[in-house]
Amino acid sequence: MNDPLQLFGFTTAPLELVSFVLALITVSLSIRQNHWSWLFSIISSATYAVVFFQAKLYGDSGLQIVFIALSIWGWYQWLRGSSTHSVLAVSRLSQRGWLLSGIAWVAGFAVLSVFLQRYTDTDVPHADGLLTAGSLLGQWLLSRKKLENWLVWIVVDLLYVGLYLYKGLTLTALLYGVFVFMALAGWRAWRKLP
Fold it and tell me: Where are the domains of the chain?
């Protein structure tokens, strides 16, 4: 069922291909602020959890489980997250929000990096920890419709391209390369909003 297949000159597994397509749909819908993006996020996260576990990217695998929970919460936030329990509008981080976001990313990196190094057999505990913490921050900011989520995703996605190439997940590396451009498009689209 998950035997490797050749696609455009490189090898991938069917589950990675399915995850790839679902993730593209998720980000495309997020750029348009379509709440159905969260449903695709849940399904994509579930399939990618398996792909990453098989690649011994345990931080990324566990992250997908957290993404499922954050996607349920994000879906609610987008539909009822405003102070009047109506549709949430795009907003910007305050200076305090920037500071807290930076602290959260560094703290998450420290904790995850140590955990992955001590308790798993991953060969990339620090990269996995850094990008897992950044992804958690990006997802939380996206759930709250903070414009700056796209900046976090640009940085994280650029770094993920290298990590996934190193781990032999070529299709996923390609996906994250596409995500960089999609995050730039999301940044531009959301910046134009009042």
Answer: 13-191
